[in-house]
Automatic annotation (TrEMBL):
Source species of the chain: Paenibacillus shirakamiensis
UniProt keyword annotations, A-Z: ATP-binding, Cobalamin biosynthesis, Nucleotide-binding, Transferase
Domain Cobalamin adenosyltransferase-like: 3-166
A Gene Ontology molecular function term of the record: corrinoid adenosyltransferase activity
Record's protein name: Corrinoid adenosyltransferase
Origin: domain of life: Bacteria
Length: 188
C-alpha cells in the first residue's frame, strides 16, 4: 500500500461525500482535532507512573473519541444515523471532571499553565481544544454538523483543565496563581 496518493497535490482533499479545498473550514475543524489528538498521545506517554493509570485510560479513550468527532465533521451530506458522537459521551466527560475535581485544591484565581511536564502538555491540549472548538463553531455556522461534537469538545477542554491540575496535585506540585488575578472562582 502506498501512503501517498497524489490526489491532494492540487490543494483538494477527500471528505465523506465529496472533495473540498485543504483550507476548507471542515478541514480546519477536524485537522485541529487531529493536532489535539497528537498532543493527547504525548500526554499519555508522560503519564507513565502508576498514579496516572486512570488518566492514561481516559486519555486513550479520548483519542478514539477525537477520531469519532473528526469522522462526524467529515460528512458533506449530514446523516444523523451515521454519527458516532453522542450525548452520553459528553456525560461521561462530566463524570470524569467531577471525579478529578475532587482531588484538586480549591481554586480562587486564574492559574498559569504549567507545573509538571504532564500538566503542561495537558494545558497545551486544553488550548488546542479551545481552538478546535472555535473552528467547529465556524463550520457549524456554514453548514449543518452534529451538535454533540461541539458539546463534546467544549466539555473536553474543561476536562483538560481539571486533569492538568490533578496531574500537578498527584505529584505534589502547586498550581501558580496568576498574580494579578482577582478572586474569580467560588471556593467549595
Amino acid at each position: 500500500m502506498n501512503i501517498y496518493t497524489r490526489t491532494g497535490d492540487a490543494g483538494q482533499t477527500s471528505v465523506i461525500g465529496g472533495r473540498v479545498s485543504k483550507d476548507d473550514s471542515r478541514i480546519e475543524a477536524y485537522g485541529t482535532l487531529d493536532e489535539l489528538n497528537s498532543f493527547v498521545g504525548q500526554a499519555i506517554s508522560l503519564a507513565e507512573i502508576d498514579i496516572f493509570t486512570d488518566m492514561r485510560e481516559h486519555l486513550l479513550q479520548i483519542q478514539h473519541e477525537l477520531f469519532d468527532c473528526g469522522s462526524d465533521l467529515a460528512f458533506v451530506n449530514v446523516t444523523e444515523s451515521r454519527y458516532k458522537v453522542t450525548a452520553s459521551m459528553v456525560e461521561i466527560l462530566e463524570k470524569w471532571i467531577d471525579a478529578y475535581e475532587e482531588e484538586n485544591p480549591a481554586l480562587e484565581k486564574f492559574i498559569l499553565p504549567g507545573g509538571t511536564q504532564l500538566a503542561s502538555v495537558l494545558h497545551v491540549c486544553r488550548t488546542i481544544c479551545r481552538r478546535a472548538e472555535r473552528r467547529i463553531v465556524t463550520l457549524g455556522e456554514r453548514t449543518q454538523i452534529n451538535p454533540e461534537v461541539l458539546k463534546y469538545v467544549n466539555r473536553l477542554s474543561d476536562l483538560f483543565f481539571s486533569i492538568s491540575r490533578t496531574a500537578n496535585a498527584r505529584e505534589g506540585v502547586r498550581d501558580i496563581d496568576y498574580e494579578r488575578s482577582a478572586n474569580v472562582f467560588r471556593t467549595k
